[in-house]
Amino acid sequence: MIRAMDKRQIFRSIAAGVAKGELAFPTSARVAIKVRRALDDPDCHIDAAAKLVQAEPLLAARAVAMANSVAFNRSGRELTDVRSSVSRLGFRTVRALATALITRQLAGEQSAAAQQQLAAQLWEHTAHVASLAHVIARRVTKGDPETALFAGIVHEVGGFYLLSRAKEFPELFDGDYYDWIESGEVEVGRAVLKVLAVPDAVMEAIEVYWAGYLAMPPRTLGDTLLLAEELAPVPSPMNRRGGEGAGTGMTASIDMAIGEDTLKAIMDESAEELASLTGALKF
């Protein structure tokens, strides 16, 4: 069994490599990065954006699915083309979808069945947290739902990158890795988030998430992430926190802090929206 000090050194080495530009992206992720950069240009025309999205089939399919989700299709009119879907979603949401593809693809192809399962569970958890964050921002913390969605998408990015290095360092995921993987994910996560040029406000919220302190009543983007993590029905395989709130006293405590509209009622009312958002995010 690898020693704790050796693990710390591996995490630091991986993080240092990312900081020096040694982060390699799969082909699909590189296309998504090109889309993100193009959408950052205020002069980018919708036709150009749609053409870029169409160049990556996974991203195109998810854009149409997201545009037809309950959260974005209030009129009930189904869309079938990328251009109309990009128009309905807006560039910010399409950027978030591109980042979702980058994050999911970051883990690469896993040869070991156990690591394939870890990557699949981590993305399912991420999709739930991002969808919950979108609803919680709108209904509970009164923040920007699109920023919350983006924060949820990238909050486990360090874990995906660590999985991409599993072939080189399989011992990191042997046995009970929890005690060391969480601290390593934070260190590596900071480096990857910097490479992805994540906005400062989102970075600060993820730091709050890593610290693990949920304020009452929840108000900030960091609180939104933590609450979404607590309510996610699928736990993160990278830490012990995820998916615990729904079955403990956490919901009751938040209900008291929120007041008239209880958290359970809000989640029940938003069940269809959550299901459609989560489905749209499953690359």
Description:
The protein has one domain (4-280): Hypothetical protein af1432 (Orthogonal Bundle), CATH 1.10.3210.10. The chain contains 15 helices and no strands. The protein has helices at residues 4-19, 27-39, 46-54, 57-67, 82-89, 91-106, 113-139, 145-154, 157-164, 178-195, 200-211, 221-231, 250-258, 263-269, 271-280. The model is unreliable at 244-248 (pLDDT under 50).
Name the descriptors.
globular; 15 helices; 0% strand; 283 residues; Hypothetical protein af1432; mainly alpha
Secondary structure: elements and pairs:
Elements: H1 4-19, H2 27-39, H3 46-54, H4 57-67, H5 82-89, H6 91-106, H7 113-139, H8 145-154, H9 157-164, H10 178-195, H11 200-211, H12 221-231, H13 250-258, H14 263-269, H15 271-280
Query: How many domains, as an integer?
Result: 1
The first-level CATH class name: Mainly Alpha
CATH superfamily: Hypothetical protein af1432
Q: Tell me the CATH architecture.
A: Orthogonal Bundle
Which class of secondary structure composition applies to the elements? Answer: mainly alpha
Gyration radius, rounded:
19 Å
> Roughly what is the average pLDDT, rounded to an integer?
84
